[in-house]
Description:
- The protein is an all-alpha fold.
- It has helices at about 20-25, 25-55.
- The chain is about 45% helix and about 0% strand.
- The chain is elongated, with a radius of gyration of 17 Å.
- It is built from 2 helices and no strands.
Amino acid sequence: PPPSHQRHQPGDLRWRPNVPAEMTADPEAAKMACGYYGLCELMDEQIGRLLRHLEEIGEADNTIVVFSSDHGD
């Protein structure tokens, strides 16, 4: 993610119980997870901007927003 969204640190991660121990111990996996969370926050902010703009210009009720994603960065 851009520097503005590099807020997460590997030491702050809370892994789900189903994540394999070898992954939670891997520094590269933690770094990638932090980057992924930053990208998710960036997308959330940008989608929020779009929805607010549609409200501001009076087109929210006249617009269908479709968000699609693959399962990657």
